[in-house]
Design a protein that fits this description.
The protein is α+β, with helices and mostly antiparallel strands and about 210 residues long. Helices cover about 30% and strands about 20% of the residues. The structure holds benzoic acid.
Length: about 210
């Protein structure tokens, strides 16, 4: 099934390294980073899961839960977690779904016929507390993902959900933002952005990040 931005993330029940997970119930009111990797005991995946574990505090600050998935069985995940902890100097602190029957891989279209046979590609789904899909990413097997970029997008989504702004190229939390083109009422602009704005063009209006 092709999943698109704004779709409701499909619900599922599956085994995980931290016990059975009923996805929507488990997600609760959190944002979710659901990410698949091709296989346990592979080098790039080992670094990715280790790095994700180290981002625990960053995820917590943003009300985000991480959930990894591959089609490896539970026993393999448990052995691999020990390896990740040892080699990456961390403790895996999020569940890894053991999707041996491909329930999740099928629902989220994570096995691509022209990529690795029978293995989930590197996908990322960012899902908001209403269960809407807000970001999708697909990476090649040979390229580890940039998890700081995933945090950056979550920062942008959480900001732009509450203020009439969008975030420009390479924006980082604290940088200037752009006022959405649909906002034209100067009284509302003055009230929302008391520090003013710089209109480089009528359609390109930069303002200090409003929640700082
Ligand atoms: C890795 O995680 O290192 C990897 C997995 C599949 C193919 C190539 C690399």
């Amino acid at each position: 099934m092709t999943l698109r931005l704004g779709d409701i993330a499909p619900d599922f029940s599956q085994e995980s390294s931290e016990g059975p997970i009923h996805f929507h119930e488990w997600a609760g009111d959190s944002w979710i980073v659901l990410f698949s990797h091709p296989a346990d005991f592979t080098p790039v995946c080992t670094t990715e899961l280790g790095y994700t574990a180290k981002l625990k505090d960053e995820f917590a600050k943003r009300n985000v839960k991480a959930l990894a998935v591959s089609v490896d069985p539970l026993e393999s995940h448990h052995k691999w977690i020990s390896d990740i902890n040892e080699t990456q100097n961390t403790r895996v602190n999020f569940p890894i779904l053991a999707d041996a029957d491909k329930t999740v891989a099928t629902l989220y279209d994570m096995i691509h016929p022209n990529s690795l046979a029978n293995a989930t590609v590197r996908t990322v789904f960012v899902i908001d507390p209403t269960k809407k899909i807000r970001l999708t990413l697909t990476y090649p097997a040979s390229t580890g993902r940039n998890f700081n970029e995933i945090l950056r997008v979550i920062d942008s989504l959480q900001l732009t959900d509450h203020h009439k702004v969008a975030t420009p190229a390479n924006w980082q939390d604290g940088d200037d933002v752009v006022i959405v083109p649909s906002l034209q009422d100067e009284a509302e602009i003055a009230q929302r952005f008391p520090k003013g704005y710089n209109a480089v063009r009528p359609y390109l209006r930069l303002t200090p990040q409003p929640n700082k």
